[in-house]
Amino acid sequence: MTVVEPRPLDSFIDNDEKPIGYGRMLRKEDPRFIRGKGRYCDDVQLPGMLHLAILRSPVAHARIVSIDTSAAEAHPKVKAVVTGAALAEKGLAWMPTLSNDVQAVLATDKVRFQGQEVAFVVAEDRYVARDALELIDVEYEILDPVIDARKALEPTAPVIRDDIEGKTDNHCFDWETGDEAATNAVFDAAEVTVSQDIVYPRVHPAPMETCGCVADYERVEGKLTLWSTSQAPHAHRTLYALVAGLPEHKIRVISPDIGGGFGNKVPIYPGYVCAVVGSIVTGKPVKWMEDRSENLISTGFARDYIMRGEIAATRDGKIQAIRTHVLADHGAFNGTAAPVKFPAGFFGVFTGSYDLEAAYCKMTAVYTNKAPGGVAYACSFRITEAVYLVERIVDCLAYELDMDPVELRIKNFIQPEQFPYTTKTGWVYDSGNYEPAMRLAMEMAGYEALRREQAEKRARGELMGIGVSFFTEAVGAGPRKNMDILGLGMADGCELRVHPTGKAVVRLSVQSQGQGHETTFAQIVAEEIGIPPADIEVVHGDTDNTPFGLGTYGSRSTPVSGAAAALVARKVRDKAKIIASGMLEVSVADLEWQKGAFVVRGDPSKSVTIQAIAMRSYGAGDLPEGIEGGLEAQICYNPENLTYPFGAYICVVDIDPGTAEVKVRRFVAVDDCGTRINPMIIEGQVHGGLTDGVGMALMEMIAFDEDGNCLGGSLMDYLIPTALEVPDWETGYTVTPSPHHPIGAKGIGESATVGSPPAIVNAVVDALKPYRIRHADMPLTPSRVWDAMQGNPKPPV
Amino acid sequence: MQVSMSVNGDEVTEEIEARMLLVHFLRDQLGLTGTHWGCDTSNCGTCVVWMDGEPVKSCTVLAAMAGGHEVRTVEGLERDGELDPVQQGFMECHGLQCGFCTPGMLMTARALLDRNPSPSTDEIRQAISGQICRCTGYATIVRSIQWAASYEAAATVGSAS
Ligand code: FES
Ligand code: FES
Question: Disulfide engineering: A332 pairs with which of A113, A226, A723, A794, CB 3.0-4.6 Å?
Answer without folding.
Answer: A113
